[in-house]
Design brief:
The protein is α+β, with helices and mostly antiparallel strands and about 280 residues long. It has 2 domains: about 150 residues, Sandwich (Jelly Rolls), CATH 2.60.120; about 110 residues, Arc Repressor Mutant, subunit A (Orthogonal Bundle). The chain is about 45% helix and about 25% strand. The strands form 2 sheets. A 6-stranded antiparallel β-sheet has the order 1-2-9-4-7-10. β5 and β6 form a beta hairpin. The protein is elongated and about 65 Å long. About 25% of the residues are buried.
Amino acid sequence: MEIKIENKIFINIFKNNDKETKKILKEIGLDQIQFHFNIDGHFKLKFNENYEFNLIKNKCIIIYNSKKKVNLNAELKKNSTVITILIPLSELHKLLSNQDIYIPTIINIKEKYYEELDLSKSLIYVLNQISNSNKLMNTQKLFLKAKIYETFSLLFKNNNNSESCPFTINNDILSKIRLAKEILIKDVSNTPTLNELSENLKISLKKLKQGFKEVYGFSVYQYALNYKLEYAKDLLISGKHNVNEISIIVGYSSSSHFIAAFKKKYHLTPFNFIKNISVKI
């Protein structure tokens, strides 16, 4: 069942309650991004004669290629449900620009993008609401439009561990940006400088700073600081280390610098934070 929401935005609810595998064939425009959400069963995508991709339950795959048509050629096995949203890149950015989500203003539509993602419990709940929507109700299109907004909001929700809309930079730079994040969190006691990251990853400082902000919504420095202090907070909660030890573990040259940074972020000194935990316990 395909429903046009607006401005070339389509939602397809594919269900197979038959005993036989169902084939799905659909032409996809060059400007469209494909979002396939498997909420039950088995869904196999065929990209050419030599490559197939199995999208398992509670997974999503995002497909975008502005240079080559990637038509939908898939198989849906029995007792399976998949929701597909098709949306032009420009419309995706318009849609999300009104949400409380970091969306970069520069749109590069000359690249391709493929990624598989896990579905959160909140997102699975919303997708099941879409799947079970009543096609006879007068407000179904309005309901589905609202749920598409909610789906993208949950999918691109920006926090320290999630990434913002990824369609603005090419795959090579994106992989380097992700590697930069892994390097930052690997050893919080020895955070590399921007120059060191740039040299190690063979990426210019400008692309590193701009790309990191686009993907994660924070500067490299701010992301590293947030992660460092969150890690310090977890150590304080564990009760296994004192404040001086924690300041060394997270890479501060002195405990006073650590205390000042912690207080600036959490509006409490580490000592008062520990006291508050003790009172709650």
